[in-house]
Amino acid sequence: MKNALIASAALLALSPLAAKAQEKTLTISVYAFAQDDFKTIVYDPFEQKCSCKIVVETGNSVERLAKMEANKANPAIDMAVVSMADALSATRKDLIDKVDTSKLSNFGKLYDLAKDPNGDGMSVGYTFYATSIAYRSDKMKVESWADLLKPEYVGHVAFPNVTTNQGPPALYMLGQALGNDSPDLKAAIVALGEKKDEIVTFYEKSSQLVQLMQQEEIWAAPIGRFSWAGFTKLDVPVAWATPKEGQTGGMNVMVVTKGSKNRDLALQFMDFWLSTEIQTKLAEKLVDSPANKDVKLSEEAANNLSYGEETAKSLKLIPSAAALDNRAAWLKEWNEKVGQ
């Protein structure tokens, strides 16, 4: 009987069910977009490489950070991708740990701005985007962010609402052009408020801008580079501005959950995602602009993404602390001066 039990135990240990039970599982929290591409390019190949299972949780930033906070005592996820500002928010709430970059073989390949975006060692950038001005090159000349408010142009401008991702960065650069780069963005909001009746629209969705430009209702609008492809298909001349104050934009980063039981696996996954091969494949699919400086892209992909060392060096990103500490004040000032 004893021998039979031992034999049964041995058979069970070799069974697919037992193997399944022993399989490592990595739970990640990510944005919902392009998940089919991420599955094909990132998740499935990593599962094969690590002999593990990836569980993917998606949602917007507010939902995902709230879930991390609710499960702080017993983390439900191992790593997450969030914005720079959300990473700092997670740090302040003690939800994430320092990233051990010594275990990231691809760390040295990253552009400098992606290596430690918040300057605290708690995150690593994996993609960034530029924000500048798309404009009708046959109608106007854009050398400065302040050109948007010139009398001859302002009546043909769309500007992002402060509640959008592009609103604060565009205001930040407008403020710099006006000689005031204070994180309260007051100078830029006041200047916009004075012109609010002339500006065509304070947009909330960039998708509406292509049609407005095609119909010549607008000549210019600050946009993220990820929206640029639609403008290149217009049958009117549209250019991407390189203002003298520089470009702004945003960055998404990777973080490791504090208390994760799969920290090493999470770091392996992050390193895989940051590799030249994976970053190239994601970029060629126009999913993400690469943070890996060794990535070489086709002309088509490069034209539709935020790409290259020159672009990376030109970006003036709003410091995360400034974004977190001033959001409520931005909205209050906007509602008072612009009223939309």
Automatic annotation (TrEMBL):
Keyword Signal assigned: yes
Protein name (record): Spermidine/putrescine transport system substrate-binding protein
PANTHER family: ABC TRANSPORTER SUBSTRATE-BINDING PROTEIN (PTHR30006:SF2), THIAMINE-BINDING PERIPLASMIC PROTEIN-RELATED (PTHR30006)
Species lineage: Bacteria, Pseudomonadati, Pseudomonadota, Alphaproteobacteria, Hyphomicrobiales
Any GO BP annotation: thiamine transport
Domain of life: Bacteria
Signal sequence, renumbered to the chain: 1-21
Presence of keyword Signal: yes
